[in-house]
């Protein structure tokens, strides 16, 4: 009994000492707690909760990746890293190079709770800062060995977690039922976003959309409709082609699809909270883009177009006419044109068709359709004596196109321009504090394209070396509201560019108090 009495007395003394701490000392202690312990501490009493709320008055966005080949251990490593300091997650993005998405989603939900919106996606590669040492690096899913004979699959996981006071975040998916048209699901996606944002903000324009898509026919027309429907101030970035799972904030787990339903897109929607406290600071979203495509003087008009009917990995067969000529060229003839221009090195140069797509868009049945023109790239993949074969769909007879090639000099100059833009961001009159960054990089860029390490990371590393940023390699990058422009785009002010190749689309999240 005596030992029990002494323990009880000691416990009471400890509680008195803790309760008597001044707020500054308590602030310094709580600031060093990991996220889970911090959450428990905020429930001790009103005084502690007040200090915890003061600590979390500033936003956070943290990314970390792991190369651990064991998926479960790698997930644990990145979760431990991003949750090593106080944070109340508003959203989570997890990207893996391969593996079980459901396992990763379950692991994250167990650690952050069932009310946090989560997207898990399979990507072509990962870049950012490693969880184990904070060093920058990149991991591609497939890497060819030095002998050039085999391909090695590398596992990596990137985790990004954000706490953005004054912003509400949720996942809005696009699920396509069998027989449902792209126009219908596109309209529904736009209206779902508008309805969510209206409830949260009082108006229909989200601050930012981060999108993850599947490789289907439906993604491109829906993305163009979204580009048409959203006002210019809405930032739209993402990865068009991949695989994903999602969990909305009001769902305990990933929603299982009905038979014959298919995933098309999932969007993290960031909406400004109309009930944000007046004294709270403001979150800002900005984008910048580094391009690498250079046009060559080969222009055509699509003559006959046929689209493959495969549900995934769509492709297009076409013939074309040279600009101003009546003769219809088959695939071999078009390929000969390109080959002659490139000095018989066509496949070494990885040519693309840049197609100008002028289409009518509207939302719902009551709105009068309007024409919007978009430039979309399609990779040249083959030819025969009938057709030229290119990746992707949505090309129509009468569309004009030009040949484009990746250009290292263009990419280097554009990277420098992006770095300059980020430098200018720091010198704005309102002095924004950059709290997070994410980059969507074309899968053909990276160390092998630039011949040096961490080139696509360099705008963040040069301007914000301590920033815990992340990024993924994509097969088609999504980006708009881009403030780095080249001469060609200035001449073609009415041509929209939302889908890219060989580019790096940077999302910068900042805060002003």
UniProtKB/TrEMBL annotation:
Domain F-box span(s) in chain numbering: 21-61
The FIST C-domain domain covers 334-481
Q: What SMART domains does this protein's entry cite?
A: FBOX, FIST_C
* Pfam families the UniProt entry points to: F-box
- Coiled-coil regions, chain positions: none
What protein does this entry describe? F-box/LRR-repeat protein At5g63520-like isoform X2
């Amino acid at each position: 009994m005596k030992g029990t009495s002494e323990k009880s007395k000691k416990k009471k003394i400890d509680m008195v000492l803790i309760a008597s701490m001044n707020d500054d000392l308590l602030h310094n202690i709580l600031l060093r707690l990991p996220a889970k312990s911090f959450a428990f501490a905020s429930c001790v009493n009103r005084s502690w909760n007040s200090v915890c709320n003061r600590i979390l008055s500033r936003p956070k966005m943290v990314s970390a990746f792991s190369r651990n080949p064991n998926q479960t251990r790698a997930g644990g490593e990145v979760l431990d890293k991003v949750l090593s300091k106080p944070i109340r997650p508003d959203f989570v993005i997890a990207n893996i190079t391969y593996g079980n998405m459901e396992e990763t989603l379950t692991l994250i939900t167990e650690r952050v709770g069932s009310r946090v919106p989560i997207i898990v996606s399979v990507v072509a590669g990962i870049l950012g800062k490693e969880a184990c040492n904070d060093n920058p690096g990149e991991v591609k899913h497939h890497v060819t060995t030095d002998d050039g004979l085999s391909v090695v699959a590398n596992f990596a996981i990137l985790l990004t977690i954000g706490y953005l006071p004054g912003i509400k975040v949720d996942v809005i998916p696009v699920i396509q039922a069998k027989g449902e048209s792209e126009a219908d699901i596109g309209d529904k996606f736009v209206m779902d976003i508008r309805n969510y944002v209206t409830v949260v903000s009082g108006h229909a324009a989200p601050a930012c959309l981060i999108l993850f898509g599947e490789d289907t026919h439906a993604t491109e027309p829906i993305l163009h409709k979204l580009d048409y429907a959203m006002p210019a101030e809405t930032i739209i970035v993402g990865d068009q082609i991949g695989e994903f799972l999602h969990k909305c904030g009001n769902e305990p787990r990933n929603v299982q699809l009905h038979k014959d339903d298919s995933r098309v897109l999932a969007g993290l929607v960031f909406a400004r909270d109309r009930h944000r406290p007046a004294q709270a600071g403001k979150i800002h979203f900005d984008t910048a883009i580094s391009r690498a495509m250079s046009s060559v003087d080969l222009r055509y008009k699509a003559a006959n177009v046929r689209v493959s009917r495969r549900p995934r990995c769509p492709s297009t067969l076409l013939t074309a006419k040279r600009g101003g000529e009546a003769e219809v060229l088959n695939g071999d003839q078009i390929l000969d044109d390109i080959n002659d221009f490139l000095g018989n090195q066509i496949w070494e140069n990885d040519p693309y068709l840049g197609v100008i797509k002028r289409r009518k868009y509207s939302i719902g049945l009551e709105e009068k359709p309007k024409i919007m023109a978009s430039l979309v790239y399609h990779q040249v993949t083959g030819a025969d004596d009938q057709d030229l074969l290119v990746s992707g769909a949505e090309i129509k007879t009468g569309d004009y196109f030009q040949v484009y090639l990746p250009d290292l000099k263009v990419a280097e100059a554009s990277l420098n321009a992006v770095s300059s833009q980020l430098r200018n961001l720091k010198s704005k009159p309102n002095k924004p504090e950059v709290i997070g960054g994410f980059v969507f990089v074309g899968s053909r860029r990276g160390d092998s394209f630039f011949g040096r390490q961490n080139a696509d990371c360099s705008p963040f590393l040069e301007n914000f070396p301590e920033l815990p940023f992340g990024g993924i390699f994509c097969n088609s990058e999504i980006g708009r509201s881009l403030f780095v422009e080249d001469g060609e785009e200035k001449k073609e002010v009415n041509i929209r560019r939302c889908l890219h190749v060989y580019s790096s689309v940077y999302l910068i999240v900042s805060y002003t108090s």
